[in-house]
Design goal:
Length: about 1150
């Protein structure tokens, strides 16, 4: 390789390479702070294409690819200079490093906010009124004596098993099911008074209107008058033995159902009121201290319908009358068991299985909508310590006033227990989900870039924490005391500033690192590998050209797309062109490298068939600047589909492909990303060769974990090498059968890469999704060669990390690359006592190389409150974040435990969390009541969604690869993604307001919420459905699908017809907006009621029982209640 050539070609467009710290960025910071840095983290306009492809397209000659003999592999070692162990989160700052002070004052420019002093907030500031409430599901209370007849036999005998939660102990579901069957068999006949409250469809609205102001027990949700909504008949209980110690996949579907608990809690045993939600006399009690809007929509299944009638479609297109606005005492309740078409007329005995009214249990939609209306209107200012942000589903603006935006860091608890004993007692994980490079909305300024000069960022001498708003300046500003370790550090001369009368630096508002929660530092050469400024990164496209890849149309589609896509490579700020160089490899059983040097008339191919010891046969001309080599690249991209068009080669290699990319980056001395487009299990003889070891019989056995483990260590070792080089691997899979995602995805997983899977790919049908994903993936903001370190103040420390990365020690999260979509979940544990005055501080520092080769540090700071009362903890929690943590804990757990154990562990920990609240925080009340903390009242429903997901409880049709794939995707999701992924968004399309930009209010994910006269859109971030009820009005069908009747709708369509009417436009715009909100493109699937595809759709109706044996929400809530009671007794 001609390294000089590289330097000559690519050296000049890199501002700041020489004067790096001195002028290049001073200009930026002093000049146009906001706009200058906008593109970096901001909207896509930073990556607008440069001019259209410049180079003339050259004719494609008869493809005379020359096969060169390999040059010496030894060459690559000559450039293999990067040490592997010296990536640190910055060097130690020592006195001899003092150099010329280059302090410049920072002018925040467009930052309009008057920053408020960061200080411990007023003690009551974090006590949001709406967090005070408790939710109760009352069991047996004095109001209504338990019915004598309802014996609930077995529970006591099960109690001891759950108390200790042995991993291999009896299945929780077993315990669950057995008693419930007993209940079923002893269900009293209809009309038995104790059941009436549970069919609380008819909760009088008046009881919601004046909430109590305390957390006391005053019932808000009083039972309906006896008889008003009583079931008219009881459904027969499920057959015994249908239960569910899991999900025997070989059984017929009905066998997978957990016992239907009939939603009608049996009477508690005598003397032990309410083992399950007993014959509740009060239904659910809710005690919010918040304003009354909270529970008005308790009839929440029809929450959306309760809204004022929508102006347009309301009249003609409302669905069936079953689920509309007003509580209807005798309204049919649908039986979730009635699979095919619950909305059809049901036999009378099936109408009334529920003993707990689904409308009376905590509704995700209710919580989401309440948060939107309570918190969506005002900006969220981060100046107050320990403040719980609005939910991820709420659209809100963030003002950084000294703590990081929740878009960067979200915590499960914003008020940490002071002692580890308290933490153990409550079992609430102290966890944060950090998304260091998160994309911000256009109206929020991306982090400012700060330059502290040649000596680099100011840091604490001892713990190396970076300058931040929590540092206390003392002695007139000459020294500062670290908020993390209390060590006192001299302020370097060039950074000195006088203090004002409050002890604040005079330049407080001028410096992001003193007044903002998030900002970036320019890193010096000390923060670079081998003390050398990095080269710009490279992208290498590695294309499978075996038979399947050609036949599906992939190769042709991809090569065509790359011609334009290469114009969109990430660029730094306002740079005219991307500094990223590109290279191309094709492969089947052998690898083909291409020389696309700009001086060539035609690309040259070099074949490497000795794949046992991979090397790169060319150095000069392999990685090139796109604009310089445009013509040669275009020629290559035109030739590739032709060259391999007639291939009969079906075998592929995989390990050598990654090795080749890695070697190429090593030789070029740069970090980068490999884009691998791969179709089959790599069966060809080569390093990393795999065998088909899929075995679904392992499901639900102790050996199930091997399905998630890689089948060879080869890729572990390769991943480690890749991380050391900063070689990130993105994997696009196009399998027609098992490809062993668990193994193939390993390097991707450990290098911070992204994985995409297009099963049975056909260019025609799936091209749109693939190309959209590819575009986004190539263009997105990304940092290379990254190390993340999380520092904490004394008393807690980060002990565990979850995500797509590699760790070679216990503190540094190493990422070959980190992009704007990846989140890392961190768990903290006590190592000492915390105190309420000081709170707890977290500082996340991400060292990375930008797309132009700049070395930077992104810093995020968050300060939390600490409490001595558990009630404060429970008042300041965030369930979505808690679930994010639980999912990641579980998905790591399946690598070493049976899924059953993992499920039990989650249930156990959640039960402990809720039991602790019940015991220590809730007002005294009947033991039979289920009392949930307001902030966690959705924990049961969300937890159940996690437990039912394919990874932990697969249905029969889910492939092993799909499970491994889902697992890998979820592990780097942020809170917003896990939130919608596990509890999808279900929007009643027929209620959309065509004159508004708003979406219709979502409804709960249950079949019984669907009207057969309605059309619904369901999305979870990966899947997008439009479900059409068979009784939908013809003119609505005409307006959207351009056919006259339900029967004529073509469910094979993958896009809605473009029709010129408001309904078509509005729905298509909703689909577009939803797609734009998600990191991955969702292919639209049309599902007609009763169509065969409906099974797939129903898989996402998370409140219902699942085909794989997952419990319905109501059932699971009963189960959780029982678990909690057992813990309390
Ligand atoms: Zn320190």
């Amino acid at each position: 390789m001609n390294q000089q050539g590289h330097m000559a070609s690519y050296g000049q467009p890199q501002p700041g390479y020489q004067g790096y710290q001195q002028f290049a960025y001073n200009q930026h910071t002093a000049g146009v702070p906001t706009s200058q840095y906008g593109p970096y983290n901001g909207p896509v306009q930073g990556y607008e294409p440069t001019a259209a492809p410049q180079g003339p397209l050259r004719p494609t000659p008869g493809a005379p690819p020359t096969s060169l003999p390999p040059s010496t592999a030894a060459q690559s070692t000559a450039y293999n200079q990067y040490g592997q162990g010296d990536i640190q989160n910055g060097p130690a700052m020592t006195d001899q490093m003092q150099r010329f002070p280059v302090s410049q004052s920072y002018m925040p420019g467009g930052q309009p906010i008057a920053y408020q002093q960061y200080a411990p907030p007023p003690s009551n500031a974090q006590h949001l009124p709406n967090q005070m409430a408790a939710m109760q599901i009352s069991g047996s209370t004095s109001n209504a004596p338990p019915p004598i007849s309802q014996s609930y036999g077995p529970p006591t005998s099960h109690r001891q098993t759950t108390a200790s939660f042995p991993p291999t102990g009896p299945a929780v579901y077993t315990q669950y099911s057995t008693p419930l069957q007993n209940i079923s068999s002893s269900i009293p006949q209809a009309g038995n008074p104790p059941q009436q409250p549970f069919s609380g469809q008819t909760v009088p609205a008046s009881t919601f209107t004046s909430p109590p102001t305390s957390t006391g027990l005053t019932g808000m949700n009083l039972p309906p008058p006896p008889g008003v909504s009583r079931p008219t008949a009881m459904h027969a209980p499920p057959l015994p033995g249908q239960s569910q110690t899991g999900f025997p996949p070989s059984q017929p579907p009905t066998g997978h159902y957990p016992p239907q608990p009939n939603h009608r809690p049996a009477a508690p045993q005598t003397g032990v009121p309410g083992v399950v939600p007993g014959p509740p006399t009060q239904g659910f009690q809710v005690h919010p201290t918040q304003p009354s809007q909270g529970f008005i929509p308790q009839q929440n299944g029809s929450f959306g319908q309760m809204r004022a009638p929508q102006p347009n479609y309301a009249a003609p297109y409302t669905g069936t009358p079953s689920y509309n606005s007003q509580p209807q005492p005798q309204q049919k309740r649908l039986d979730p068991d009635s699979i095919p078409s619950p909305l059809n007329e049901l036999p009378p005995q099936q109408k009334t299985r529920h003993r707990i009214d689904p409308d009376a249990i905590p509704s995700p939609i209710q919580v989401i909508e309440d948060d939107k209306s309570n918190r969506g209107s005002e900006p969220f200012s981060t100046g107050v310590r320990g403040q719980v942000p609005p939910l991820v589903t709420t659209d809100f603006v963030v003002k950084d006033q000294g703590n990081s935006s929740p878009r960067f860091i979200r915590c499960a608890a914003y008020n940490l227990p002071c002692t580890s004993d308290m933490a153990k007692q409550c079992q609430v994980p102290l966890t944060a989900v950090i998304k260091p490079l998160a994309t911000l909305p256009a109206d929020e300024a991306p982090p400012y870039i700060v330059d502290h000069g040649e000596t680099g960022p100011i840091r604490c001498n001892r713990c190396k924490a970076y300058m931040c708003p929590y540092m206390q300046f003392i002695e007139g500003g000459r020294r500062f005391q670290c908020a993390f370790c209390s060590c006192v550090t001299e302020v370097p001369l060039h950074y000195f500033q006088h203090l004002d009368h409050t002890g604040k630096r005079m330049d407080y508002y001028d410096r992001p690192e003193l007044s903002l929660g998030s900002y970036e530092f320019l890193a010096t050469v000390d923060y670079c590998k081998n003390n050398k400024i990095p080269n710009p990164p490279a992208f290498i496209f590695m294309i499978d050209v075996s038979y399947n890849a050609l036949k599906s149309g992939l190769v042709h589609l991809l090569c065509e797309e790359l011609k334009t896509l290469l114009d969109y490579l990430p660029r730094e700020g306002n740079a005219e062109e991307s500094a990223i160089r590109v290279g191309f490899v094709t492969y089947n059983k052998v690898l083909h490298f291409y020389n696309v040097k700009s001086s060539l008339a035609q690309p040259q191919m070099m074949v490497v068939s000795d794949i046992a010891d991979m090397f790169v046969p060319l150095l000069d001309g392999f990685l090139v600047n796109v604009n310089e080599s445009r013509a040669v690249i275009n020629s290559l991209l035109e030739q590739i589909p032709e060259m391999f068009g007639d291939t009969r080669e079906t075998e592929t290699v995989f390990g050598p492909v990654i090795q080749a990319g890695l070697e190429a980056l090593k030789a070029a001395e740069c970090a980068g990303k490999l884009f691998i487009f791969h179709s089959t299990l790599p069966l060809a003889e080569a390093p990393g060769k795999l065998k088909n070891r899929d075995d679904k019989k392992l499901i639900n056995t102790d050996k199930e974990k091997v399905l998630f483990q890689p089948q060879t260590n080869f890729y572990n070792n390769l991943a480690k090498e890749c991380v050391a080089q900063g070689c990130c691997v993105d994997l696009f899979l196009f399998p027609n059968q098992y490809v062993d995602v668990a193994t193939l995805g390993l390097v991707t997983y450990q290098t911070g890469g992204s994985i995409y899977k297009y099963t049975y790919f056909q260019a025609q049908a799936d091209g749109e999704r693939f190309l959209n994903d590819l575009h986004r993936d190539v263009r997105k903001v990304i940092g290379f060669d990254s190390v993340m370190r999380v520092r904490t103040s004394t008393g807690i420390r980060a002990t565990d990390f979850f995500g797509s990365f590699y760790m070679s020690n216990t503190t540094d999260v190493e990422l070959a690359a980190l992009d704007c979509d990846k989140a890392i979940t961190v768990e903290f544990k006590h190592d000492d006592k915390l105190n309420e005055d000081n709170g707890a501080q977290i500082q996340c520092a991400l060292l990375y190389t930008s797309c132009s080769g700049q070395r930077r540090l992104r810093i995020h700071n968050l300060s939390l409150n600490c409490c001595t009362q558990l009630a404060d903890l429970y008042r300041n929690c965030e369930t979505d974040t808690l679930i994010n943590y639980f999912v990641k804990l579980a998905y790591r757990g399946v690598l070493s435990n049976p899924t059953k154990t993992v499920r039990e562990t989650l249930i156990n920990q959640s039960a402990q969390i809720l039991a602790c609240y019940r015991k220590n925080c809730a007002s005294p009340s009947s033991a039979g009541q289920l009392i949930l903390p307001e902030c966690m009242k959705l924990l049961p429903v969300y937890l159940n969604c996690v437990l039912k997901n394919d990874v932990l409880q697969p249905s029969a049709e889910v492939s092993t690869d799909d499970r491994a794939y889902t697992r890998q995707l979820v592990i780097s999701m942020d809170v917003a993604e896990t939130s919608v992924f596990f509890y999808p968004r279900l929007l009643p399309v027929h209620k959309m307001d065509v004159d508004s930009d708003d979406f219709p209010v979502a409804i709960r994910c249950s079949e019984e919420r669907l009207s057969k006269g309605g059309i619904y859109l369901l999305e979870n971030g990966l899947n997008l459905f439009i479900w059409v009820g068979m009784n939908t009005q013809h003119d609505l069908i005409q307006s959207i699908f351009n056919v006259q009747s339900f029967g004529q709708i073509d469910s094979a369509m993958s896009a809605l017809p473009m029709l010129d009417n408001p309904y078509s436009k509005k729905l298509r715009s909703m689909v577009d907006m939803i797609r734009a909100q998600r990191p991955r493109f969702m292919k639209l699937i049309i599902v007609k009621q009763d169509d065969k595809m409906e099974v797939l759709f129903k898989h996402f109706l998370m409140e219902d029982k699942s085909a794989s044996g997952g419990a319905s929400y109501v059932d699971f809530l009963c189960h959780m209640h029982k678990e909690i009671r057992q813990l309390l007794s």
